[in-house]
Amino acid sequence: MLSRDKTLKPDRNVELTALYEISKVLSSSIDLPQTVSGVLKILSTYFDDVRRCMISLVQESGDLHVIGASNMSPEAIARGRFREGEGVSGGILRNGIPVVIPDISKEPRFLNRTGSRTPEQTERTAFIGVPIKNGREIVGVLSYDREFRGMRRNFENDVQFLQMVANLIGQTVRLHQLVAAEREFLMGEKHRLQKALPGKYNIEHMVGSSKVMQAAFAEVFQAAQSRSTVLLRGESGTGKELIARAIHYLSGRKEGPFVKVNCAALTETLLESELFGHERGAFTGATQERKGRFELANKGTLFLDEIGDVSPAFQAKLLRVLQEREFERVGGTKTIKIDVRLVGATNRNLEDAVTRGQFREDLYYRLNVVTISLPPLRERRDDIAGLVQHFLQRFCAESGRQLTIADDAMAVLKNCAWPGNVRELENCVERIATMTRGNVIREVDLACRQNMCFSQALHHYGKSGRHVPVPVVPAPISASEEDDADEVPEFTSERERVVWALEQCGWVQARAARMLNLTPRQIGYAILKYKIPVKKL
Q1: Which CATH number fits domain 4-179: 3.40.50.20, 3.30.450.40, 2.120.10.30, 1.20.1260.10?
Q2: Fewer CB within 10 Å of terminal CB in the chain, N or C?
């Protein structure tokens, strides 16, 4: 130190000032290389008899690498690598105790691995090194070379001072590791979500260059900037949830939660508990307090899918929340206020439901503030080729295969009716890509050319592209299947046909499928498509 060479006693003021400056540098940034550089500069500035300062950290390989040093070239720093137990620094890493070498020119363990010390520089030079610890884990080594100029000195103070600096560096390394781990986790989550839901949070990544979709996208951008309730209308599979997410992430609420509920999937009782939450003991099985989706979506967006299917009784409760922005949990008396933007979606004709008394008129007006209609795929055929390529590219990225689609196969896909819309097209492309053995998907590979298309089994397609129910063809009846032996009448709709078969077979889907000459999967698809409530007998 400045005064130590004269008195051989530590200058406490200099040390305290240096520690203060080092602590400021380490707390100013989580950029480890930047803070290391600052620490080295302070040590070199405050102590003029320090020839070289060096900070080494343990890498994933377990080796010790020099990450920063004063008075050392980048090439020399790159050479500073030590295995555990190798040389003086490797010994500190293994044993975890400070090391003092009064004269490095006389120490055989001193490797001079960096090659930065000339023979003249090793003379009259002492080495002091201490471990850098994160708790009990040794994460690095802090050391410096000091010139003693032929005078004897006590290095105990050097060790104490370096240990204090090493403790500060250890805390910074720990913070850096935590931040790096969090960043890695978040990047992993981002990659996982992008892989599972590619493009679903950014409307710019959606496939839709047709005029009708461009018009819908323009409405989405406009609606996203407001706080208004949005009602999305369109057939099943047209991407209503996709658009709901886009509205959320394009809005000022994008930092808040996006919460979704499928109203058609829950009974009225379950839906009330799901949306409003419940207090402990509110009903049998309510062993603890539970927040509802409205609370979870506070400061964000709540997406109510199939909102047209809620019961009239529940519609009244929903209306109050939309009007007052407050509610009580099931079994509770405390009024909870919320700040939630609502996006609803339905494939029902709500105007007809209002006329029939199945949907409250006041709730209809409360929901129908901004309406965005999503066209079915048959009305945006210009997008089919782009969608097919999009789904195919995603499949190839996930599977590691390289697939292309031939023009004849693409022409068939463009002319299909797609009653299940984009969802059906996505499933179709995935099925074809999975089962295709070569690298080119041809017309012969298509499910409809192998009598394996669900839509083809349930519908006929005319030249116009419209679909009508398949004429009934009675299945062969075995003598042992007396319950299936009734003659199948003709029906005006496919739904009536499926319901009749289920009723005849006691709601056993496998038997009803045999009666209609369908597979169990096909009749299951029909039950979902026509929203047929399955009875348990």
Answers
A1: 3.30.450.40
A2: C
Q: Show the CA angle centred on residue 88, arms to residues 85 and 93, nearest 5°.
A: 50
Are the beta carbons of 332 and 288 closer than 8 angstroms? no
CA distances from 200 to 116, 229, 484 (A): 55, 21, 46
CA distance linking residue 77 with residue 53, whole number of Å: 12
pLDDT digits (tens, 9 = 90+) for 376-425: 999 999 999 999 999 999 999 998 889 999 999 999 999 888 988 999 99
Strand order in the sheet with 370-373: 258-262, 301-305, 341-346, 230-233, 370-373
Radius of gyration, alpha carbons of the chain: 36
Question: What CATH number has the domain spanning 203-375?
Answer: 3.40.50.300
- Alpha-carbon gap, residue 235 to 362, rounded angstroms: 24
Q: Is 121 exposed, middle or buried (0-12, 13-18, 19+ CB in 10 A)?
A: middle
Exposed, middle or buried: residue 252 (CB in 10 Å: 0-12, 13-18, 19+)? exposed
- All structural domains of the chain with their residue ranges: 4-179, 203-375, 378-468, 482-529
